[in-house]
Amino acid sequence: MTNLRFILLFTLPFFFQHCEKKVSVTVPVPTRPLNADQVPANAIPINILVYNTSCWVEQGKFIVAGICTNMTPGWQKIWLEAVPLNANGNSISISTCSSVIIPAFSDAVPPSGRTTFYASWPVSDFSDKPDSIMIKAMVATQPPPGPILVTPVLNCMKMLTPSVSGQPASDEKAWQVSGSISNPLEMIAAHPRLEVLVYDKESHLRLCTVLNPEDPNVKPIFQFEREGPLQPQEDRPFSMQVYYQVLPQILQEKKIGRVEILPFEARQ
Asked: pTM score, two decimals?
């Protein structure tokens, strides 16, 4: 019995050490991108131009913004696969994935047309502090042709208020943007949408978002001359207010340099 106890006391520590080594084995990084389920099964690789990409960290989040130009002869709905990089240019993981899917905003980009993307994630989701991204792949589905909407006229004006009562207006509070959305083809654009691009004074793209004129919550900051579908060859004036208080912190600090509008027709 004594010999048996001695053997058990000797072998149990070895057994537990052996178990700990097995538990500490590194789990392989998944090969599927984060949010891969957002990409339809019929999406195919395409050739698009990605540019004006900006990446920065703000209030605990890593933010990415950029523009895509459709270089193909067909209409495209676009998704990007991006690999996050640290300050040394080395790839890092996000939520244990080696890459992430970023959808572009427009539901249907015509040949030579443009669309934007904008995404953010908590810095804590990354294996190291993120600094930039590398576009690994571009895929798209091919929606049918439709209306091509353009912005032939766009005017911007700073809205200033006095920083001290009784002094000249010098405190930049917002931008007033006005212009028109044109539907030059013989097609009705049933659900017009507007991609709003806001650059800082150093020409870095810092915000991309989509405004839906049919949404009642948008009306306090966006006003169409009239509501409803855009008729063939219609040119519809609009006005919009871009308030600093709702913009990313980096725009509040660096201030707005310019604003662009990319209209499109929603397909969903």
From this structure: 0.86
